[in-house]
Amino acid sequence: MTERPPHGSARPGGRTARTRAAVLAAAYEELDRDSFAELTLDRLARRSGVHVSTIRRRWRTVEGVVVDLLAERSSTLPTPDTGDFHRDLRELTQAIADFNNALRNRNVMQGLLAAAAHDTRVEEIVRNAFVRRTEEVTLIVRNAVERGDVPEETDAWEVIASLGAPLYYRVLILRGSIDDRLVHTTVEATYLAARSGVFARKG
Amino acid sequence: MTERPPHGSARPGGRTARTRAAVLAAAYEELDRDSFAELTLDRLARRSGVHVSTIRRRWRTVEGVVVDLLAERSSTLPTPDTGDFHRDLRELTQAIADFNNALRNRNVMQGLLAAAAHDTRVEEIVRNAFVRRTEEVTLIVRNAVERGDVPEETDAWEVIASLGAPLYYRVLILRGSIDDRLVHTTVEATYLAARSGVFARKG
């Protein structure tokens, strides 16, 4: 017989790690049913089976839990590398759309943005999450530069930010979902601008 | 002698209107010094001279006060009409940049977005404010269509949203200011896409 660890303790780190996993899973489930506004430490305690005082001691607030949840969930989107700039942009945009159209992911993002207004520590975490994620996928633009698809002086960061901006504007500010039409116009506008050298840094 | 009303009662509605004016002015001043996170009913009471229980009765929360402040301040940006599509886009973008680069306006916007995550009533107000403002300035695109600068089937709303998205992404999500470079790339990318028919609705 293989030595299978009992259910729930598969993550390394023992009891502390199990508590974290249980509370983050509970938060993720709660955010699939209700918005961030409805999330309370008591609801997390009820769903996770972890005592509310333990949750409060470790994360302090629901914002703290959701920040931790983002840290766990981020970097799950792969960077497309199809050999074609337009197709890379399209796949990336579709992946961002799919991620954000899942209700709970949207609730995590909206919740974090709310928390950022009340807590400069969270503000920093949110900004860093966007900046880091943007930097990761600049590979798409660097590949396109190498193939000669966009001008050499292209600012790769600006191209990716230009792609992400209409999507996050829709989700986080207009609070709607990302439909096929928005995917289309976002890809075409960014592709055209990048090809035409709008994001090229002169001199 | 003309009958001049005593200082502070110039707004119609008497005492209630004076109270509102004093509290909104206090909120606007507070947001010029500190972020939304620092705003409390007690600070508003201290600065406005209005009793905290009066503020609480009328607006319930600081979010309520800031929603009211947005209602008062919105629609202050005029819609450019220079006879040139590119110049109209540039003037509008610069106006949005100037407005949002003023610390207190940025704090109002960030505060409202935070409030929206906790209160669906505020969420609706924020969404409506963006939608209404976007609709107002679609005049720029309709003028461009009339002059033949962009294709006839152009979706004017999408063009303006494409212009606003990178600016609000910077201010509200990355939480930075709108610099000259962002104004430049945003105007050029949107201009190019609109001229090329990216926002045209076929059929």
What is the topological layout?
2 copies of one chain form a homodimer.
Chain A: H1 14-33, H2 41-48, H3 52-59, H4 62-73, H5 85-101, H6 103-118, H7 120-137, H8 139-147, H9 156-173, H10 180-195
Helix pairs in contact in A: 1-2, 1-4, 1-6, 4-6, 4-7, 5-9, 5-10, 6-7, 8-9, 9-10
Domain HTH tetR-type (chains A, B): 17-77
Keywords (chains A, B): DNA-binding, Transcription, Transcription regulation
DNA-binding region (chains A, B): 40-59
Describe the structure using short key phrases:
Tetracycline Repressor, domain 2; elongated; Arc Repressor Mutant, subunit A; 10 helices; mainly alpha; homodimer
Describe the structure.
The structure is a homodimer of 203-residue chains. The first copy, chain A, has 203 residues and is an all-alpha fold. The first copy, chain A, is built from ten helices and no strands. Chain A is 70% helix and 0% strand. Chains A and B meet through α6, α7, α9 and α10 of A and α6, α7, α9 and α10 of B.
In short:
The structure is a homodimer of 203-residue chains. With 203 residues, the first copy, chain A, is mostly helical.
Q: What is the count of β-strands of chain A?
A: 0
Could you spell the SSE succession of chain A in H and E letters?
HHHHHHHHHH
The gross shape of chain A turns out to be elongated
Mean pLDDT of chain A: 87
Counted up, domains of chain A total 2
CATH topology of the largest domain in chain A: Tetracycline Repressor, domain 2
Assembly type of the chains comes to homodimer
